[in-house]
Every structure is written in structure tokens, then in C-alpha cells.
């Protein structure tokens, strides 16, 4: 049975995760627009013949939060308090997105995790902290057994994230996901609950 804890907010230092909201549309769109060239190589795309049809950001946010309330996914935005004049956490800027998807219970109890970050905030340790927060929440609070991350072999920044957090490399899956207009190979990294000790946030400390 799914253990649903939604909405939820998580924080480690100046990095926080909170639910994606319909009201985030403007800030989210602005971040995506200024990062088009930065993110294009890693963005998921729809394969030919599988278009779901265009939908608004508001409709997407409502749908994802509905799925979160059923325990199927966790649609977070990443916010950061280290920006000049960020003030209280409620005013921290949106600097990226982290989504836990494919949440499965029963005898599997696993999920996969994906993310992106605004280029101007890259290299500040934001993504490792966000991944650690989400993974600890999934393993300790939701009771999942396994967290998986799929990364393109060319994505050196993401490879450094999983290396820093101690994810185990499990091999390559050819033409695994449709990214940037074609089916792309991915490397698979994972951690089981028995492998994380006191948690990934503790590893950062």
C-alpha cells in the first residue's frame, strides 16, 4: 500500500524542495526559456506517434499534484536561499526541478529520480543536496527500497552528482529514453535502503 505524504517540503541548508504549484508557471517558464540551450541535450521528448497533445503549465501542475496525492510521483521544484536578497524561504527563487516518478509499491518498492537546474546556479552543490533530500524522503519516510537514476553517458555534471552521493553503477541501457528528439543510451545508477546508512544528506555533511 502506498504511504502518501503530500504535500511535503524538505530542506538542507540553503537548498529546499517544495511542491510544484500552478502559480509557479511564470517563474518556471522564465527559467526554462533562459536555459533552452543548457537543457536541450537532456530534455525528455515525445517519440513520433506518441504525442500527448499540448497542455498548459497549470494543467500539468494540477495533474502531477493529483498523482502525488495518490502516491504515484513527487513533483518538486528546487529553491535556493543563497541568492542575494533571497530572504525568507517562501521567497527563495525557483532554480530547478526534481521529479520522483514511477513510484511502485508491493514487492518492488522503488522509484526513479530526475532533475534539472538553472545554469546560473550550477556548480553550487544544489543538485546533490536536492537529490539527497528526495532520496532520503523516499527511502525513510515513504518506505521505498530502491532509488534509481538514469543518466546519459555524455552528461558529466549529472555523473558527478551520483558519484558524490555514492550511487552504485549498474550498467548501460541502450536506447532507453527518448531525449532531445531520439532514443538515447543511459547509464543506470541505484541505491537500496540497506546501502545508505543514516542517509544521503548525512553523506553531504
From TrEMBL:
Any idea which UniProt keywords this protein has?
A: Acyltransferase, Transferase
Task: Show the Gene3D superfamilies listed in the entry.
Answer: 3.40.630.30
Give the protein's recorded name: N-acetyltransferase
Note the SUPFAM superfamilies from the entry.
Acyl-CoA N-acyltransferases (Nat)
Q: Which family does it belong to?
A: Belongs to the acetyltransferase family. RimJ subfamily.
Q: What is the lineage of its organism?
A: Bacteria, Bacillati, Actinomycetota, Actinomycetes, Propionibacteriales
Listed GO cellular component terms? cytoplasm
Mark the transmembrane ranges: none
A GO molecular function assigned to this protein is: protein-N-terminal-alanine acetyltransferase activity
Q: Which residues form the N-acetyltransferase domain?
A: 15-194
Q: Give the organism the record lists.
A: Kribbella antibiotica
Amino acid at each position: 500500500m502506498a504511504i502518501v505524504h503530500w504535500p511535503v517540503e524538505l530542506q538542507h541548508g540553503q537548498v529546499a524542495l517544495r511542491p510544484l504549484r500552478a502559480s509557479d508557471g511564470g517563474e518556471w517558464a522564465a527559467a526554462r526559456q533562459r536555459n533552452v540551450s543548457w537543457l536541450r541535450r537532456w530534455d525528455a521528448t515525445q517519440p513520433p506517434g506518441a504525442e500527448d497533445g499540448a497542455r498548459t503549465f497549470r494543467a500539468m501542475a494540477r495533474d502531477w499534484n493529483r498523482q502525488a496525492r495518490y502516491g504515484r510521483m513527487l513533483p518538486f521544484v528546487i529553491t535556493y536561499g543563497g541568492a542575494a536578497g533571497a530572504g525568507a524561504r517562501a521567497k527563495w527563487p525557483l532554480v530547478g526541478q526534481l521529479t520522483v516518478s514511477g513510484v511502485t509499491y508491493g514487492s518492488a518498492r522503488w522509484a526513479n529520480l530526475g532533475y534539472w537546474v538553472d545554469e546560473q546556479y550550477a556548480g553550487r552543490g544544489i543538485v546533490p543536496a536536492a537529490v539527497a533530500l528526495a532520496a532520503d524522503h523516499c527511502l525513510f519516510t515513504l518506505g521505498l527500497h530502491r532509488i534509481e537514476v538514469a543518466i546519459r553517458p555524455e552528461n558529466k555534471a549529472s555523473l558527478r552528482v551520483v558519484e558524490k552521493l555514492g550511487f552504485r553503477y549498474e550498467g548501460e541501457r541502450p536506447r532507453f529514453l527518448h531525449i532531445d528528439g531520439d532514443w538515447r543510451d543511459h547509464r543506470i545508477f541505484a541505491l537500496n535502503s540497506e546501502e545508505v546508512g543514516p542517509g544521503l544528506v548525512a553523506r553531504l555533511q
